[in-house]
Each structure stands twice: as C-alpha cells, then as structure tokens.
Design brief:
Structural class: mainly beta
Number of domains: 1
Radius of gyration: 19 Å
Shape: globular
Low-confidence stretches: 1-12
Strand content: 15-25%
Helix content: under 10%
Number of strands: 11
CATH architecture: Sandwich
Oligomer: single chain
Mean pLDDT: 87
Length: about 250
C-alpha cells in the first residue's frame, strides 16, 4: 500500500499525491480564480484518447532539435549562452522510453517569448524562435541545443520574476496523451522566490524539475550542458502541470 492508502499494482509504483501543490495557493494569484471548487473525479480514458495519430521520424525537420540554428538567418546565431539540454525519458521502473516526442518552447536570452501577446520590453532576437522538437532514441535518450532563457517579470505581485525555464511537452501513443511541465536550472536565485515554484510542497519535486550542470557533456570552447531525466509515471514521477492529480 502507498502512504495515501491506495494499493500499488505489481511492478508499478503508484504516484504519491501528497507532494502535489495545492490547487488553491493565494500567493500564486491565478489560482484564486482557476482552482477547482469541487473534489477530483477520475475518469477512465476512452479508446480515442489512448490511440490516434502519432509522430514518426519523418515528421521532424533536420534542425528541429537545434534551437540555436532552426530560426537563425544564414551565417548568424542568436544572442545568449549556448547550452545542451539532455537526459533520458523513463518509465516508473527506470526503463528508457524510445520514440517519445518532446516539444520545447521558451523565452530568449532577454526573457521574451516570440509571441504576439508578450509585451515585455526586452528585445526580440531576430535569430531565435524559441521552440523545437526531438524524439528519444531506442534507449529513451534525448538531447537538444538552445540558448539559455532569461528570467522575466510577471504581473502576479509587486515584483515577481519567473526563473529561467524551458517548457516541456511529451506525447504518448496518441495526441490526447500529453504531459506538460517546465524545467529550471541549477543555481538560479529566482527558484526559491517564485510563487509558482513555492506552490510545490515537496523540495524533492522541485529538485526533479531542476536541470544540473553536466561538465562531462560540455563541449570545450563551445557549449555547456545541463542534464535532466524525465520520469513519466509512478511515485517518482515529475510534476506535470496538466496532470496535477498524478498520472
């Protein structure tokens, strides 16, 4: 049995929901209006949700995994710190999941998104689009290159700033099977100050969302590397913002 009183299935480590952030967290002002007012109701997935069209190897472009190049003009590069983000996509037993589609999107080095609704005064980078895709290999390994995003202010309180972060979206066997989260970077002083991060009750959960500097994969005189393993299910699963009840 898990400490929540739910029986675990053989070979499956059931998610511990006690470490999930509370849906209503007044310091994170958006939850005042958006948090549910009724108890959680679990629904079984239908066939249309568990099956459907999926991406194949031919669906990705040659530079989809390289955010440094995929929007840059010929002979030019985006401004900012060049980084590699890599790791494994794992199931509840630590086994790599092959062929998983990961989509990423982020702000540029100045903390601004290439989006019509982003009015932050930081400049847009003409050589940086801020989005990409990658498929995990046969061992569940993924890797992409990008520019380290900058922090930015947001209208939550008097002086709240989001830590540097990259949004992750992972697809299962169908488009309706999608998990969304965001990752942070080791040593960012805004992590403990952010109301969204502080809504997470367990420091371990925050730690699982924090990419670590990985000097072994850094390319000398070129690009630094950060490592983050993504655990999709079970007690050790990462927090996914569209599956706060667990998955």
């Amino acid at each position: 049995m898990s400490k929540t009183g739910e029986e675990s299935l053989p070979g499956f480590n059931r998610r511990d929901r006690q470490w999930h952030p509370d849906a209503f967290t007044p310091a994170y002002r958006s939850t005042i209006l958006r948090s549910p007012k009724q108890k959680l109701v679990m629904l079984e997935q239908s066939l249309s949700e568990t099956t459907g069209p999926v991406f194949g190897q031919n669906s990705l472009g040659a530079l989809d995994h390289d955010l440094i190049q995929n929007f840059a003009n010929p002979g030019e590069s985006p401004i900012g710190e060049r980084i590699i983000v890599h790791g494994h996509i794992l199931d509840e037993n630590g086994k790599g999941i092959p062929g998983a589609l990961m989509e990423v999107w982020q702000a540029n080095a100045g903390g601004r998104y290439r989006h019509k609704n982003d009015s932050y005064l930081a400049a847009l980078d003409p050589n940086f689009g801020g989005c990409g895709r990658v498929l995990s290999d046969e061992n569940g390994y993924y890797s992409f290159r990008t520019i380290k995003p900058g922090p930015y202010p947001w209208p939550n309180g008097g002086n709240d700033w989001r830590p540097a972060h990259i949004h992750y979206s992972l697809f299962g066997s169908g488009f309706a099977q999608r998990l969304i989260t965001q990752i942070y970077f080791e040593g960012d002083p805004h992590i403990p100050l952010c109301p969204i991060v502080n809504a997470i009750n367990d420091p371990k959960a925050i730690d699982q969302l924090t990419a670590r500097l990985d000097m072994e994969h850094t390319v000398p005189m070129d690009i630094r590397a950060y490592r983050l393993d993504v655990i999709l299910r079970g007690r050790n699963s990462m927090l996914f913002e569209n599956r706060m009840e667990g998955n």
